[in-house]
């Protein structure tokens, strides 16, 4: 149904449409008429939604902080999973990965050549020189948050340290491009260029995603697309920035036995940092890190 100017705004702010989202909706429509991909209003988060995601994010951040304090040589990935489950549930949350499409654990632990979706295992002991991505996702009162961090175990080679650092820089550079009326492709381009300039490659098949009311929402967020392409960034959009940067080829494969664990095709290391970001009226807000 069409909203009239004096009707309550669709976002639930309580304001009249004409003094809330009317101008923004008209601007989005102009981009759509020019042939650009634009978000529908159901992809934009209301003030209530955003506050709910912020509260979920507090748990997610606290869990990753706790992982950072316990992780080290001799720790098993199952011990990480136990910590994530126990701390998340003690704070009133639910680990989003647990039983998601059959995933058997509460967190993803991806070590060295594992790109993503590594499954915690009581027999996998972290060793000196490993790098590991711990990907935590939380449901709290129906709202989802998602972020991951890299941890370097003991004495890590300079080559791995550089990969981890450059991947973090990719996220930071991409974040600078998150502002209203830019495109997701603007962000992808700076990420891809920085990775390539350092001799690395970015995974093509797996990317980021919208999040908030569900674990994975539209849009799919690529990190290898061109400036001025992909979805228009509009205030209220919430999505993840999480490029997977490989030391060698961008080619990957999925473990045939567990149908989850993703590896680099050449066996070289991969790194990933993930944040959840909100597009605001004048830029962005990092919700989860």
Folded structure, characterized:
The protein has 289 residues and is of the alpha+beta class. The chain is 29% helix and 22% strand. It is built from five helices and 15 strands. Strand 4 and strand 5 (143-152) form a beta hairpin. The two termini are 38 Å apart.
Q: What is the helical fraction, as a range of percent?
A: 25-40%
Query: Sheet bearing the most strands, described?
Result: 4 strands, antiparallel
User: Given the C-alpha coordinates, what overall shape results?
Assistant: globular
Query: How many helices in DSSP terms?
Result: 5
What separation lies between the terminal Cα atoms? 38 Å
Order of helices and strands: HHHEEEEEHHEEEEEEEEEE
- Beta fraction: 15-25%
Instruction: List unreliable stretches of 5+ residues.
Output: none
Q: Quick recap of the structure?
A:
With 289 residues, this protein is of the alpha+beta class. Helices cover 29% and strands 22% of the residues. The model has no long low-confidence stretch (mean pLDDT 97).
Helix-strand blueprint:
Elements: H1 22-33, H2 47-70, H3 77-90, E1 94-95, E2 108-111, E3 114-116, E4 131-140, E5 143-152, H4 158-176, H5 184-197, E6 201-202, E7 208-210, E8 217-221, E9 238-241, E10 244-246, E11 252-254, E12 262-264, E13 270-272, E14 275-279, E15 284-288
Antiparallel strand pairs: 1-4, 2-4, 3-12, 4-5, 6-10, 7-8, 9-14, 10-13, 11-12, 14-15
Q: Which characteristics define this entry?
A:
single chain; alpha+beta; 15 strands
